[in-house]
Specification:
With about 450 residues, this protein is an alpha+beta fold. The protein is built from 14 helices and 19 strands. The radius of gyration is 25 Å and the shape is elongated.
Length: about 450
């Protein structure tokens, strides 16, 4: 039976569309660029603006909480009852820089509507995640005077800088952030297909330095008696994979969790959508590593090791007959469910250091890395999202694992130890690029989706 509160809240949101869009333009005009110190006051102004908006809507304990970097916006409404779940809603209000500015067709912080699209920096990444949630809550408050679940708001101000201060913030505020579910509102869907991202790979990056002689040497004098560090680097790189593509570092796959049959089926469906884009973007006609697994498994469910760059010796025109003194190369390793970045860092370092000798010094500098994340795949909370999309988009969402890394999600999972779902609202193109735009039709539709989702969650008892 239809929930009359849903119908009323959706009707209210439709009646307020012009007002909601007008106020969204106000938010988009704030140049909350987190990477540029020149915009620190804009970041603070944006945080204060959102605090005021939370108070106006009806949230309590609204504040811009200081961190070691930019402030974190927090608000709560905890009056749905102890039998209702508490949902921690995450999005970020900071945005990317706008360079190159001359490639924008309209000013990046002056929202402009053209052909059903709203152009502005942050319009999809991720002020859409902030605003769609707030307008859904406002619509529910307007018709019911309450929310169907308990809500805690967590809007970050430095996601675009890599969230350098979120770990200590979360560690210091675990009681404040305690909840039954973390709902991530970053990212979005395709224009004709809703998506739920339920997994992302972790990452460890490293730089390897191989040093031979104290300086570049004449190869006619020292060739054959001084080991060439470029050759050693080549040996190290060649040792990383066998001919099938399998990584040859001892213990690398020991903790890899195999996907379930349901995940493999979802992967097969998602590949039908994404493969044409991969082919068009890469220009590759024949894919590598077939012996390791299906294309989708290799792209999202198996770990990788890639050399990202190498430099050393002479690289100018013509010939310079030298034995280089030093060579360096960079590596990134993508990790999957149950792999530990600290363990992978140690295994990689041990593997590379086997090539050190009296004639070649080897050094490894690796980052702490980030953890892979696996969110809810088949649960009442995910079904609540599917039902919301069915009601507003006319179809269920496609469950997607990304081959990339979303470090903050892995951190949240380990530190807060709570189930995580993903419901992004940014449907558009050119995020991080000039002429970022949001499809206006989908923006309004996603407010309806959010309303349905939270009412659906309210049917789940603890």
């Amino acid at each position: 039976m239809a929930n009359p509160s849903i119908e009323k809240a959706v009707a209210h949101a439709h009646a307020q569309r012009d007002e909601y869009m007008t106020h969204y333009h106000e938010l988009l005009r704030i140049p909350s660029i987190s990477t540029d110190p020149a915009h620190k006051e804009d970041i603070n102004r944006c945080a204060a603006w959102l605090v005021d908006e939370l108070k106006r809507i009806g949230f309590n304990n609204c504040q811009a909480i200081p961190s070691d970097g930019h402030p974190v916006v927090y608000g709560e409404w905890l009056e749905a009852g102890d039998d209702k779940p508490t949902v921690l809603v995450y999005a970020h209000y900071d945005v990317q820089p706008v360079d190159p500015i001359d490639l924008w067709d309209s000013p990046p912080f002056e929202p402009t509507v053209r052909d059903g699209k709203l152009y502005a920096r942050g319009s999809i990444d991720d002020k859409a995640g902030v605003w769609v949630n707030l307008k859904a809550f406002e619509s529910m408050f307007a018709v019911d005077g309450k929310l169907p679940v308990n809500i805690k708001i967590l809007f970050e101000g430095e996601e675009e800088t890599g969230s350098p201060n979120m770990l200590p913030f979360v560690q210091q505020h675990k009681d404040l952030l305690k909840a039954d579910l973390l709902q991530i509102s970053d990212g979005g869907s395709l224009p004709d297909q809703p998506l739920i991202i339920y997994g992302a790979r972790g990452i460890v990056d490293a730089e390897v330095t191989v040093t031979g002689p104290v300086r570049d040497l004449h190869s006619g004098v020292y060739g054959g008696i001084v080991q060439n560090p470029v050759h050693v680097a080549g040996d190290i790189i060649a040792s990383f994979h066998d001919a099938s593509g399998r990584i040859q570092i001892d213990g690398f796959y020991d903790r890899v969790k195999p996907p379930s049959a349901a995940e493999l089926k979802a992967l097969e469906e998602s590949l039908k959508i994404f493969l044409p884009d991969w082919e068009a973007e890469s220009g590759v006609k024949t894919w590598w590593g077939e012996a390791m697994g299906t294309l989708g498994e290799r792209a999202t469910m198996l770990p990788t090791l890639d050399v990202n760059g190498i430099w050393g010796g002479y690289q100018g025109p013509g010939v310079k007959t030298i034995i280089p003194g030093q060579v360096k190369f960079k590596v990134t390793m993508r990790l999957v469910a149950d792999q530990d970045p600290n363990e992978i860092k140690a295994l990689f370092t041990a593997h590379v250091m086997r090539f050190a000798s009296d004639t070649a010094q080897v050094e490894v500098h690796a980052s702490p890395g980030s953890w892979p994340v696996t969110m809810l795949f088949d649960s009442p909370e995910v079904e609540a999202i599917h039902r919301a999309f069915e009601a507003t988009w006319g179809k269920r969402a496609l469950m997607v694992r990304t081959g990339g890394s979303i470090p903050i999600m892995g951190m949240f999972q380990r530190e807060l130890n709570m189930p995580i779902t993903s419901l992004g609202f940014g449907v558009g193109e050119n995020l991080h690029s000039p002429n970022e735009f949001l499809w206006i039709e989908h923006f309004y539709r996603n407010i309806d989706t959010a309303i349905h989702f939270y009412y659906n969650l309210g049917e789940i008892t603890k």
